[in-house]
Known about the structure:
The chain is of the alpha+beta class. It is about 40% helix and about 20% strand. The protein is built from five helices and five strands; from the N terminus they run βαββαββααα.
Amino acid sequence: MLGFKPMQRLIPPGPEVVASPTTLAYLAGFFDGEGSVTVSSRSNRPGDISYFLQITISQTTLPVLQLYQRYFGGAIGSVKRPAGYSLTWQWRPHHRGMTLFLSSLLPFLILKKPQAEIALAFLEAYRLASSGQPYRLSRAAREIGEEFITKFSQLNQNPLGTRGGGRRRRL
Protein backbone atom coordinates (compact mmCIF):
# COMPACT_ATOMS: atom_id res chain seq x y z
CA MET A 1 0.00 0.00 0.00
CA LEU A 2 1.28 3.40 -0.84
CA GLY A 3 -0.87 5.52 1.47
CA PHE A 4 -4.24 6.12 3.06
CA LYS A 5 -6.42 9.01 1.97
CA PRO A 6 -9.46 9.51 4.20
CA MET A 7 -12.65 10.23 2.35
CA GLN A 8 -15.62 12.11 3.66
CA ARG A 9 -17.51 10.09 6.20
CA LEU A 10 -20.30 8.21 4.53
CA ILE A 11 -22.00 7.57 7.86
CA PRO A 12 -21.55 9.79 10.93
CA PRO A 13 -19.09 8.35 13.45
CA GLY A 14 -20.75 5.74 15.61
CA PRO A 15 -21.55 3.48 17.04
CA GLU A 16 -25.11 4.45 16.29
CA VAL A 17 -26.69 1.03 16.83
CA VAL A 18 -25.86 -2.20 18.62
CA ALA A 19 -25.06 -5.16 16.38
CA SER A 20 -26.84 -8.49 16.83
CA PRO A 21 -24.78 -11.59 17.70
CA THR A 22 -25.29 -12.83 14.13
CA THR A 23 -23.93 -9.57 12.71
CA LEU A 24 -20.99 -9.62 15.13
CA ALA A 25 -20.19 -13.21 14.08
CA TYR A 26 -20.25 -12.15 10.41
CA LEU A 27 -18.04 -9.11 11.06
CA ALA A 28 -15.61 -11.24 13.09
CA GLY A 29 -15.33 -13.80 10.30
CA PHE A 30 -14.72 -11.06 7.76
CA PHE A 31 -12.10 -9.45 10.03
CA ASP A 32 -10.42 -12.86 10.49
CA GLY A 33 -9.90 -13.02 6.73
CA GLU A 34 -9.44 -9.43 5.62
CA GLY A 35 -8.29 -7.49 8.68
CA SER A 36 -5.01 -6.74 10.35
CA VAL A 37 -4.01 -5.69 13.84
CA THR A 38 -0.53 -4.72 14.97
CA VAL A 39 1.37 -2.59 17.46
CA SER A 40 3.92 -0.25 15.92
CA SER A 41 6.28 2.45 17.07
CA ARG A 42 7.48 5.71 15.61
CA SER A 43 10.01 8.25 16.61
CA ASN A 44 8.54 11.73 16.85
CA ARG A 45 11.90 13.34 17.59
CA PRO A 46 15.28 11.88 18.59
CA GLY A 47 14.85 9.84 21.75
CA ASP A 48 11.06 10.30 21.75
CA ILE A 49 9.18 7.15 20.77
CA SER A 50 5.44 6.54 20.77
CA TYR A 51 3.61 3.25 20.38
CA PHE A 52 0.23 2.74 18.78
CA LEU A 53 -2.22 0.04 17.88
CA GLN A 54 -3.31 -0.10 14.27
CA ILE A 55 -6.40 -1.99 13.13
CA THR A 56 -7.38 -2.02 9.46
CA ILE A 57 -9.72 -3.87 7.12
CA SER A 58 -9.20 -3.48 3.37
CA GLN A 59 -11.66 -4.31 0.62
CA THR A 60 -12.39 -3.33 -2.98
CA THR A 61 -16.08 -2.69 -2.24
CA LEU A 62 -17.63 -0.40 0.36
CA PRO A 63 -20.76 -2.07 1.79
CA VAL A 64 -19.05 -4.33 4.36
CA LEU A 65 -16.71 -1.54 5.47
CA GLN A 66 -19.76 0.67 5.94
CA LEU A 67 -21.14 -1.93 8.36
CA TYR A 68 -18.00 -1.61 10.49
CA GLN A 69 -18.33 2.16 10.42
CA ARG A 70 -22.01 1.96 11.34
CA TYR A 71 -21.40 -0.22 14.39
CA PHE A 72 -17.95 0.96 15.52
CA GLY A 73 -17.40 4.42 14.02
CA GLY A 74 -14.00 5.05 12.48
CA ALA A 75 -13.04 6.24 9.04
CA ILE A 76 -13.15 4.77 5.55
CA GLY A 77 -10.60 5.96 3.07
CA SER A 78 -9.13 4.99 -0.26
CA VAL A 79 -5.74 3.34 -0.40
CA LYS A 80 -3.37 4.65 -3.04
CA ARG A 81 -2.16 1.75 -5.16
CA PRO A 82 0.06 1.38 -8.22
CA ALA A 83 -1.47 1.71 -11.68
CA GLY A 84 -3.36 -1.38 -12.79
CA TYR A 85 -4.61 -2.32 -9.32
CA SER A 86 -8.25 -2.07 -8.27
CA LEU A 87 -9.29 0.83 -6.11
CA THR A 88 -9.09 -0.39 -2.51
CA TRP A 89 -10.97 0.96 0.48
CA GLN A 90 -9.82 0.70 4.05
CA TRP A 91 -11.65 1.06 7.36
CA ARG A 92 -9.82 2.10 10.50
CA PRO A 93 -11.44 2.52 13.91
CA HIS A 94 -10.66 5.65 15.87
CA HIS A 95 -8.57 5.07 18.97
CA ARG A 96 -11.53 5.52 21.30
CA GLY A 97 -13.46 2.79 19.46
CA MET A 98 -10.75 0.11 19.37
CA THR A 99 -11.64 -1.47 22.70
CA LEU A 100 -15.34 -1.68 21.78
CA PHE A 101 -14.48 -3.16 18.38
CA LEU A 102 -12.07 -5.80 19.69
CA SER A 103 -14.13 -6.80 22.74
CA SER A 104 -17.33 -7.06 20.66
CA LEU A 105 -15.76 -9.39 18.10
CA LEU A 106 -13.50 -11.37 20.46
CA PRO A 107 -15.99 -14.17 21.27
CA PHE A 108 -16.42 -14.87 17.53
CA LEU A 109 -12.82 -14.56 16.32
CA ILE A 110 -10.79 -17.61 15.36
CA LEU A 111 -7.66 -16.57 13.45
CA LYS A 112 -7.29 -13.11 14.95
CA LYS A 113 -8.29 -14.06 18.50
CA PRO A 114 -4.68 -14.13 19.85
CA GLN A 115 -3.94 -10.75 18.24
CA ALA A 116 -7.18 -9.27 19.60
CA GLU A 117 -6.36 -10.46 23.12
CA ILE A 118 -2.86 -8.99 22.92
CA ALA A 119 -4.24 -5.75 21.45
CA LEU A 120 -6.77 -5.38 24.30
CA ALA A 121 -4.04 -6.01 26.87
CA PHE A 122 -1.84 -3.43 25.12
CA LEU A 123 -4.59 -0.79 25.15
CA GLU A 124 -5.16 -1.25 28.87
CA ALA A 125 -1.50 -1.52 29.92
CA TYR A 126 -0.45 1.41 27.76
CA ARG A 127 -3.32 3.56 29.00
CA LEU A 128 -2.28 2.95 32.58
CA ALA A 129 1.44 3.51 31.94
CA SER A 130 1.26 6.55 29.66
CA SER A 131 -0.83 8.76 31.95
CA GLY A 132 -2.57 10.22 28.92
CA GLN A 133 0.63 11.85 27.65
CA PRO A 134 1.70 9.92 24.54
CA TYR A 135 4.72 12.10 23.84
CA ARG A 136 6.12 11.98 27.36
CA LEU A 137 6.15 8.28 28.04
CA SER A 138 7.40 6.82 31.24
CA ARG A 139 10.03 4.12 31.10
CA ALA A 140 7.29 1.61 31.98
CA ALA A 141 5.18 2.73 29.00
CA ARG A 142 8.16 2.33 26.65
CA GLU A 143 8.85 -1.13 28.02
CA ILE A 144 5.19 -2.07 27.53
CA GLY A 145 5.28 -0.81 23.94
CA GLU A 146 8.38 -2.87 23.15
CA GLU A 147 6.93 -5.92 24.92
CA PHE A 148 3.80 -5.85 22.80
CA ILE A 149 5.71 -5.27 19.56
CA THR A 150 7.70 -8.40 20.42
CA LYS A 151 4.50 -10.36 21.17
CA PHE A 152 2.99 -9.42 17.80
CA SER A 153 6.23 -10.24 16.02
CA GLN A 154 6.33 -13.70 17.60
CA LEU A 155 2.68 -14.32 16.78
CA ASN A 156 3.15 -13.23 13.19
CA GLN A 157 6.13 -15.55 12.75
CA ASN A 158 4.11 -18.56 13.88
CA PRO A 159 0.37 -17.82 13.68
CA LEU A 160 -1.86 -20.13 15.72
CA GLY A 161 1.21 -22.04 16.94
CA THR A 162 1.49 -24.00 13.68
CA ARG A 163 4.76 -25.15 12.15
CA GLY A 164 6.01 -23.44 9.03
CA GLY A 165 4.42 -20.04 9.72
CA GLY A 166 6.06 -17.50 7.44
CA ARG A 167 7.55 -14.24 8.66
CA ARG A 168 4.83 -11.68 8.20
CA ARG A 169 4.77 -8.11 9.37
CA ARG A 170 1.01 -8.02 9.84
CA LEU A 171 -1.81 -10.47 10.10
